[in-house]
Each structure stands twice: as structure tokens, then as C-alpha cells.
Write a structure and sequence with these properties.
The two termini are 28 Å apart. Helix 2 links the parallel strand 2 and strand 3. The chain has 265 residues and is an alpha/beta fold. Bound molecules: 2-amino-2-deoxy-6-O-phosphono-alpha-D-glucopyranose (GLP). The site of 2-amino-2-deoxy-6-O-phosphono-alpha-D-glucopyranose (GLP) has 14 residues, from loops. 2-amino-2-deoxy-6-O-phosphono-alpha-D-glucopyranose binds next to loops.
Length: 265
Amino acid sequence: MDIVILKDSEQVATAGARVLQKLLMEKKAAVLGLATGRTPKAMYRQWVINCRESSMSFREVTTFNLDEYLGVQPADVQSYRSYMQRELFDHIDIDQTNTYLPACAADENPLDVGPRYEATILEKGGIDCQVLGIGQNGHIGFNEPSSSLNSRTRIKTLTRETIESNRQYFDDPATQPELAITMGIATIMDARKILLLATGAAKADAVRQSIEGAISASWPASILQMHERVTVLMDEPAASKLERLDYYHWVQDQKRRVLAQNESD
Ligand code: GLP
């Protein structure tokens, strides 16, 4: 794991934007896995700025979101589709027909959505880089604690704590969904690269358990320890409970030193 601890959430956003810029320079037609929530918003803002002010383009990019609420239609302001339009898709040069979410149409059997989504991801060549946030209980996507570490896109029941922490986004609690369709943990692990973002002290326990704890379905993000190419970008409050903090800083110092050395050669 490449563990990068930065001062604040703005620095996390900037570093995340740099990861994307590098990827799009190597592969214009990249397939991105995207997340919703509060955490990636600042990074998406940077993507929008880079798309407007530099040569960065999403014209050939395809995106797959991690999850979508079940029973919320795309046009609904609370849907993750609306979130993505608002925060990113409406402001960049992406072909909107290449943006996918695991949404269930009103006349569709929800059980068909997962296998179809998996097939579409494969058809597009798999995900090059998956962006992840992390829930306070260690969930990734909506893979709540006890999710199978081998799961694929499917319906999940949200935990009480997730419903509670997402309540702020719903004006009327009665309209808040308790079910969602989410990429599975195995779907996420198939991505060729993973970029996990964590900001704020509320994430400190989940970060510690996921990076330094045992791999367990009780902390779903801990499975990322098994992935070959994970970058974790976090701010100081999110990193505050890590035991090996000094070591992670030291590793990053060494990397910077090697890079500077190579540049001066
Ligand atoms: C949500 C989403 C996740 C997100 C997480 C953290 O419920 N399903 O994809 O990463 O919870 O959200 P936030 O960034 O708002 O803390």
C-alpha cells in the first residue's frame, strides 16, 4: 500500500487530481470507477478545473459508479446519478452515454441489475482506477461489515449506522432508502489500481482497522491489503490513529528523495 498522509482535505484533493492526470496521460480512454459522498467532492472540483484549464480531457473516458440507492430514480435529487451530474459530469467533456451507475429502472427486476453491471464492466475492458471513500464502519461502496469478501454487484441492506450518517443528505428522513445496489468487494478488487481517499477524524478508526488491522469482513476496506496497487490519500485527522505513522512519513520522504535525485541526474 502506498500510504500518503497530507495536511488537509485540499491537499488530498490535489494529490487525487494528480493521480488522474497521470492516468489520462498514459491512457486517454481510461475506465474509471467513481465514488459519491462528501470525500471526493473537492477532488472532482479539481478534475473540473483541470478539464477547463488544461488539456485534460474525459472525451474517451468511461465511468462506473460504485453504487446507487434502490428505489430512488435517477432524476431524483437524492440519487447518486444526480450527485454525479452535479459534482462532475455536467462540467466536463465526457460522453454522458459512457457514464454508468448500477441503477434499477422502475420496470426492471432489481436482481438483474448486478449481473448486467458486471457484464458491462467486463465489456468495457475492466476498471483502470477505482476511486473509493470509506464509511465510518469501514464500508467501501455499500459493502457493509459482514459483506462477503468475494461479493459481486448486488443489493445490500444498509446498516443503521450508515443510514444515520447519510441522514444529513435527506430533507425528509421518510424518503431515505434502506437498500442499495453496490459493486461487490470482488468487483472493486478487480480494478487495476485503487485510490482510497479518507478525510476527517470520524474516519480515523476505519482507516486504522483497514490499514493496520486483520483482514476481515468486519472491516470491509481491510481487503485492500490484498490488492497490489492501492494508494491511500488521507489527511492528518484521518491518519491520527495509525500506529506506524512515523514509518509512513519516512517512506514518503524516501520516495521524494529518490525522485529528486533522479531529476537532478
Ligand atoms: C457512502 C457511500 C460510499 C462512501 C462512504 C463515505 O455511504 N456509499 O461510497 O465512500 O459512504 O461517505 P463520505 O465521503 O460522505 O464520508
